Amino acid sequence: MAESLDFKRLVEGDKAAWDRFVARYARVVYAAVQHRLLPAGRGADVEDVVQDVFIRLCARDFKLIKSYDPARAKVTTWLTVVATSTAIDHLRRQKRRTDSLESVPEVQLSVAPVEPVRIKIPEGLLSPRQAVVLEMLYRREMEVAEVAATLEIDPQTVRSMHHKALTKLRAHFQDEN
Amino acid sequence: MSNDPGAGLWRRARAAWAEHEDPGDELDLLPLAAYIDGTLDANERERLEARLGCSAATLDLLVASRAALAEPAGAAPDGVIHRAQALVRNPSPRRVAALQGRWWTTRWVETFRPVVWSGVAAALALAAVSGFELGRVGVERLAALDQTMTEDVRLVMGSPRDEIL
Are A36 and B64 in contact (CB under 8 A)? Predict the structure, then answer.
């Protein structure tokens, strides 16, 4: 990975190392938070959420930074995931505080984070990838090309998985009926 | 969701199989970043995809992170940078002194570590020799004392009672 960084000094609490880290990667964190909050109409919260991300990074004696392994992912990718996760948590908290969903504009609801719900698929019914494809196509209403790009597979493979998954689902619910 | 029959079927499946996600089941963010960068091995990838298929929140995080990475990041405002930098402060003079103290202790230990074991061996050898010497001297003194006492007893036994009194 090209993004060399003195993680040893950073996790030792070295002030200069922390300042360099922030100066170098604040734009990555800022962009990820902004990308998630602006469409949800929470642009005013961006700076506070960016601060939350950095608090999360240095909290409990830099525990989160200590968990990072440069051999597994680029710093920019990892920080984007951390920042996006923090922004989603923020939106989820805001959503819970909202008294009535009717007061929230439609455009904001479309990007609101989902509540943590787990789908327990019956054993052996769908492969993990088939379930991901159905979730992306139907719940997130993504295009086949977008699904293919996200999973880094061929669009034709997405279509084929989609078709097979629906066939299995039909058969499953017919049996149930 | 759209009016596609497939969408209806998936909606039905989700409704039938949905359950609340355990809040304690927190996602480790590094494997997700590794998934995006394509560095997961086949097993790890399959495990993560199994989670993506059943956890809507994890899938949303993946899609949103990928979308954010696809867009160029502009500069962050200076105020944001300064505020974040202020989260970690310079250590206080007392902390610096403590750290320096610790540094000197560490340095001292590292410098003398090679001679520690030979020092321990020398001390043990010295203790053994001293112990042996002390024992030998003690035995000699006891023997001398024993001999003196024997002669005293012999003198007492050889003398008339009146002379002793």
Answer: yes
Does the pLDDT of residue B135 top 90, yes or no?
Answer: no
- CB contact (8 A) between residue A132 and residue B71: no
Strand partners, B20: A117
A133-155 tens-digit pLDDT: 999 999 889 999 999 998 989 99
Q: Which long-range contacts (CB under 8 A, 24 or more apart) does A33-39 make?
A: A33/A83, A33/A84, A33/A86, A33/A87, A35/A84, A35/B64, A35/B67, A35/B68, A35/B71, A36/A84, A36/A87, A36/A88, A36/A91, A36/B64, A36/B68, A37/A87, A37/A90, A37/A91, A39/A107, A39/A111
| Helix, strand, coil shares, percent, chain B, to 5 | 80, 0, 20
- What is the predicted ipTM? 0.82
Question: Tokens standing for B138?
Answer: 């003690």
* Cα B27 from chain centroid (whole Å): 25
Q: What is the pLDDT of residues A59-69, one digit of tens each?
A: 989 999 999 99
CA gap B21, A88 in Å, rounded:
16
**Cβ of A117 and B60 within 8 Å?**
no
Partner-chain contact B73 A27, CB within 8 Å? yes
Asked if the C-beta of A160 comes within 8 angstroms of chain B's C-beta atoms, the answer is: no
Q: How far is A129 from chain B (nearest CA, A)?
A: 6
Q: How many Cβ pairs within 8 Å bridge chains A and B?
A: 221
Q: What is the band of A2 on the pLDDT scale with cuts at 50, 70, 90?
A: very low
